[in-house]
Amino acid sequence: MTVHIQRADIARISMVDEVRAAARAGVDLVALWPLDDASQMSNDAKYAENLQVRVTRTIAAVLTHEDVTAADAEFVYEGADSIPGRPQTVVDALIAANNAYDHMADYSVNGDTSLVMGAAGELGVRWDGGTVTEMSELLLAVEQLAGSADGSAAAITSDVEEVAQRLALVLIAGRSCLDIISRHAPEGDLIADAAPMLLYANELCERVSIPRMSLTPDQLAHVAESGRGETGVQARLESFAAALAPLAAQEWKHHLDDVLWNPDEAKKKAKEDDERKNKEALAAKFAHVPQDRDKPTVEL
């Protein structure tokens, strides 16, 4: 089955209200690129580390169907190959997820679609021949629309319309991947079989120069089901976009807050909050004491 992605489909999905809202949130972050402030660059590096921990935690959870804690994911990210008191299946899944994450890292630079298959292999996901064939065709079709003419990543833009269209391409690619997997294994574990797509979507975001995303296992399951029951392709795409775009916007706002975080301002705000809470506590403590109107008011 030959895969076609029409530019008209991209344009239509880019006009979905949730996609437009996400694009506006994305522009607020993209407008800072490339970062040149040392503090912001440090914050962004920490965000990237935290993102890998969160993404690999989600992948391990959907592969094992076990409770994977943030501490588990952090320990393995730091290099642990076993965790006392924790199932080795969880640790092994996290190790595989980190290997796959690292394996996919070059895709955003070179658009080599074989890296997606390699990441699936790292995760132990076994697609049948039909899935591999259609997936390969889809990845190539997306790549023709994603990269620059010279094969490099797309240029950075802070134009809302352009960001919306780039996000639309990612959304169409994501729904199409899920449709392929579901069609070839209708009784299979869709979320586990689609685990490599979470990595692919992030690298595709990077390739088209929009911010990355992160989903919890519950969010991934919800998004994967969005539009699945729709009979028309356009209806499936619109339902999927309406479900995923707000989560992208939420992540991009979180990313922006992390980049702009200032420790001095944070300390000042924390001090002000403490003082306000103390005043409120004192006011509540003495609220029952009758006031003498002849005495001057005392500021607490």
Short description:
The protein is mainly α and 300 residues long. The chain has helices at residues 7-14, 17-30, 38-64, 70-77, 88-103, 107-110, 114-123, 129-146, 160-184, 190-193, 195-207, 217-225, 233-260, 263-285. It has a single domain, classed as Orthogonal Bundle (Fic-like fold), CATH 1.10.3290.10.
Structure description:
With 300 residues, the chain is mainly alpha-helical. The chain has one domain: Fido-like domain (Fic-like fold), CATH 1.10.3290. The protein contains 14 helices and no strands. The longest helix is centred in the last third of the chain and has 28 residues. It is globular and about 85 Å long.
Order of helices and strands: HHHHHHHHHHHHHH
- Any idea how many domains? 1
Q: State the secondary-structure class.
A: mainly alpha
* Mean pLDDT metric: 91
In CATH's first tier, which class applies?
Mainly Alpha
CATH architecture annotation? Orthogonal Bundle
How many DSSP H or I helices? 14
β-strand amount: under 5%
Rg from Cα: 23 Å
Alpha-carbon distance between the two ends: 74 Å
The 3D shape can be described as globular
Number of strands: 0
CATH fold-level topology: Fic-like fold
Helix content: 55-70%
CATH superfamily: Fido-like domain
| Major sheet size, sense and barrel closure | none
Parts with pLDDT < 50 across at least 5 consecutive residues: none
Would you spell out the secondary-structure blueprint of this structure?
Layout: H1 7-14, H2 17-30, H3 38-64, H4 70-77, H5 88-103, H6 107-110, H7 114-123, H8 129-146, H9 160-184, H10 190-193, H11 195-207, H12 217-225, H13 233-260, H14 263-285
